[in-house]
Write a structure and sequence with these properties.
Length: 376
């Protein structure tokens, strides 16, 4: 039993480190794509950036755990095979199935963890991440006003400011752009104050000590000096980018998916042609597919780990890069098949929620064949 504990805890330890590394990698990629650009642009602060990335961890964990588990199995068993420990165990009379029992036990634990992460924690975390990020932008769109930058986030308007003190900008230059993309009016002001109106949809601009210049046919026109001048900026363009995400299927937990399926089952939809339940069946199949895809993805950890176990003993490699490439290759092959099957989810006649289990069944068959061949 000593070798079983060694294999189990070695695999568990490597799974933790591999999964943590992959989570950080996924977080970095997601931050660069979404939040980090806003942070560099001064539209969110560092504390909010850190809080939103922490919120996203469960969603990244759901994708990282299968790859981390397979990589850990390859690394731990490959090291034992390279050091001759597997040969020593076989000489002592232990077969491959008994050696694989700790791997099976650990992969079942990871499967249960992935089940909870995929069906509950990851959808909630992904939706919360998007919602927090976009609500922050909607709550304070004045953050889009940065000095020394041409601001194009408002319709038919370009703003440039030489400095900023709170909600007040200094050395302001504002261009009103016409339909032909040619400036119609130029405003210059020593300073300007920006504030939200009561509806929260418009920014009120109050300019001080400046002048307005009309442009006609591309040439300077009349100029008017002013002490105070006020106008409004529409925030629809900003809010359209910060639209609160819909509660789509990938953002729903298991209980929400079941509730949606029951709702579509009990509510018949009609079409212009006279009322069929084709759309209702299609919607229900889509929800069933989302549920079964999440469950099958979590369950795939077990056959992937068993195949990785045999590959580790066959190739006997201790190099992390080689094992990482094999782990990513195995998981990407499974994910590619799942994505290909997902194209069938809108079909009324094909049960994609059953077909999605075919990659898992194929992996289990391969693992069983490897064990059977070794015994024979």
């Amino acid at each position: 039993m000593i070798y079983s504990r060694q294999i189990f805890f070695s695999t568990a330890r490597l799974t933790f480190f591999a999964t943590a590394s992959l989570v950080l990698l996924f977080l970095a990629g997601n931050a660069i794509r979404d939040a980090f650009q806003l942070f560099v642009g001064g539209k969110i602060d560092a504390l909010f950036l850190l809080r939103t990335l922490i919120t996203f961890i469960p969603a990244a964990f759901a994708y990282a755990l299968p790859i981390g588990t397979v990589l850990a199995v390859l690394a731990s068993m490959g090291r034992m095979a390279a050091d001759g420990e597997i040969l020593a165990l076989e000489t002592a009379g232990l077969n491959r199935f008994r050696m694989a029992i700790p791997i099976i036990a650990w992969s079942c634990i990871c499967c249960a963890i992935a089940f909870g992460a995929t069906l509950f924690a990851a959808p909630y975390a992904a939706y919360s991440y998007k919602r927090q990020l976009q609500e922050y932008i909607r709550r304070d769109p004045i953050r889009f006003l940065r000095p020394h930058t041409f601001i194009r986030d408002f319709p038919n308007c370009i703003i440039y400011a030489g400095g900023r003190k709170g909600a007040e900008m200094t050395n302001l230059h504002i261009w009103e752009i016409g339909p032909d993309a040619i400036p119609k009016t130029i405003l210059h002001a020593a300073r300007g104050e920006f504030s939200m109106d009561k509806s929260g949809k418009t920014i009120i601009v109050l300019l001080h000590e400046g002048f307005m210049e009309r442009i006609a046919f591309g040439r300077p026109g009349k100029t008017m000096n002013f002490d105070n001048f006020s106008f409004n900026l529409d925030c629809d363009k900003i809010f359209s980018r910060a639209k609160i995400p819909e509660k789509r299927l990938r953002y729903m937990t298991l209980f929400e998916l079941i509730a949606a399926r029951n709702a579509w089952t009990s509510t018949a939809t009609t079409t212009e042609g006279g009322g069929t339940d084709g759309q209702r069946r299609r919607d229900r199949n889509t929800v069933n597919f989302a549920i079964q895809q999440n469950i099958s993805t979590a369950f795939a950890i077990i056959p992937l780990s068993l195949i990785a176990f045999h590959m580790a003993l066959k190739f006997s490699r201790r190099e992390t890069a080689t094992n990482g490439a094999i782990a990513i290759g195995l998981c990407m092959a499974y994910y590619s098949l799942s994505i290909a099957i997902s194209w069938l989810q809108n079909s009324v006649h094909l049960r994609a929620d059953w077909i999605i289990w075919m990659p898992c069944a194929a992996l289990l068959a391969i693992a069983a064949a490897l064990f059977s061949a070794k015994f024979h």
